[in-house]
Specification:
Largest sheet: 8 strands, mixed
Number of helices: 17
Radius of gyration: 22 Å
Helix content: 25-40%
Length: about 425
């Protein structure tokens, strides 16, 4: 696999690895592999003993120019760097008290109806300054980076006012500037009903559509638009209004769908050619067919399933049968998934959802990147960004089998090695 158009620049050669290219359902494994990247883009992947002469010459010439990086993987596993395609990383406050309430029998919906849940985080996030929110978010983002994550989606949704939603999105952009982490921002202003609009959900959707969404778009702060379409969130009709507004602005959509009930949200998202529908425990056959036809990704969030002690499994086999791509994400947030550990989600996907290790790997690489509309990451193949992780693992399934010890040894983002200090 090669791309032969070469110009002078920085070259990286990774050799002596087992490469999981993520190019097929069996992870596209290549033993005794090598990877050549040039100016941050993968040029060639294959068996090391088949390295074409042109790339051998390129590496030698680059060494002479002192613009070559050669990494001996010593038999390690090389994969695309990971993508966490659903997070709520920017928040203030703690909801440990709600954890205690649930252990005493309260449901997620009970807590929300009592003024807790999302609104408790909204109050804390509104009270925090932008700089304070940045300081709180940075360690969370660094934690993901240290696990081999190169691309993360960060949602708003804890501001629920024009100023506070924009504040959250600015913090997300600042995270991308402060770290070698690629950040995609998602406007989730339609996450919950703020106290200013109590009993007036239509009025709040008007506010989102007429003020928050245009302002976020005009300031270049939003890469996608999301809605919590649920009985305790917003109706299908209200979701449709937000999606229409996003479409008029040329912004792709995604959806919190079918987590607690079937609101036919996934089918609505698919009608807009949306990137993904996420959660999906109550996803219907109609929704699955619509997602398959649209090419949308099903993002499963086993951390929330685990933390909320849910029992309704998402329809994994039906998604497989329909060939809907399945991604896995942390859903990192303070209320329902305070778990900032993407490899742990791979383990949960296998143990709780009975997904295979191969499906879990594809779910945090190729399919996760697709859920963010990113088609330049997620596989080890020519013309893909050189976002590459090297793991001290004997086999891919070992990542899903054992957790608690971080096997990451090298992380390259755009062909540049992330320093050990940044991974600590």
């Amino acid at each position: 696999m090669s791309n032969t158009s070469m110009q002078p620049g920085t070259v990286t050669l990774i050799k002596n690895v087992t490469a999981a290219t993520m190019t097929d359902a069996q992870l596209g494994l290549i033993e005794q592999a090598a990877i050549v990247a040039h100016n941050g883009v993968i040029q060639w992947v294959g068996r090391e003993n088949a390295l074409p002469m042109e790339y051998q010459h390129l590496v030698l010439a680059s060494e002479e120019r002192q613009s070559a990086t050669i990494i001996d993987g010593h038999g390690m596993l090389a994969t695309p760097a990971l993508t966490d395609c659903h997070t709520h990383l920017v928040w203030a406050g703690s909801r440990a008290n709600e954890f205690r309430q649930r252990l005493h029998g309260a449901s997620y919906q009970d807590i929300a109806e009592q003024g807790g849940g999302i609104l408790s985080t909204v109050r804390a996030t509104r009270a925090a300054s932008e700089d304070a929110l940045f300081r709180m978010t940075l360690p969370r983002a660094k934690a993901l980076l240290s696990q081999g994550v190169a691309h993360v989606e960060i949602k708003s949704g804890y501001g629920l006012s024009l100023d506070d939603e924009l504040k959250q999105l600015r913090v997300a952009r600042r995270i991308g500037d402060a770290l070698p982490l690629r950040v995609s921002t998602t406007l989730l202003a339609a996450h919950a009903l703020p106290p200013e609009f109590a009993n007036d959900s239509d009025g709040y959707i008007d506010y989102v559509v007429r003020e928050i969404l245009p302002a976020a778009a005009n300031q270049g702060l939003v890469d996608a638009v999301d809605v919590f379409c649920e009985q305790i969130g917003f109706s299908r009709e209200q979701t449709d209004r937000v999606f229409r507004a996003a479409k008029q602005l040329g912004i792709p959509v995604k959806l919190h769908a079918e987590q607690l009930s079937d609101q036919d949200g996934a089918a609505l998202m698919a009608s807009y050619q949306g990137l993904s529908a996420d959660h999906l425990e109550y996803l219907s056959d109609k929704g699955i067919r619509a997602m398959a036809d649209a090419g949308s990704v099903a993002v499963l969030l086993p951390g929330a399933f685990y933390f909320l002690r849910e029992t309704k499994l998402p329809p994994i086999q039906a998604l497989r049968d329909a060939k809907v791509p399945i991604a896995i994400a942390t859903d990192a947030n303070p209320g329902s998934s305070p778990l900032i550990q993407l490899p742990l989600m791979m383990h949960f996907a296998c143990t709780l959802f009975q997904m295979t290790p191969e499906e879990s790997w594809l779910g945090v690489t190729k399919h996760a990147a697709a859920a963010l509309g990113d088609h330049q990451q997620g596989t080890l193949a020519p013309n893909q960004r050189a976002d590459i992780a090297l793991w001290d693992l004997e086999s891919p399934e070992a990542m899903c089998y054992e957790f608690g010890i971080n096997p990451l040894r090298h992380l390259l983002i755009g062909g540049e090695q992330v320093s050990k200090d940044q991974l600590a």
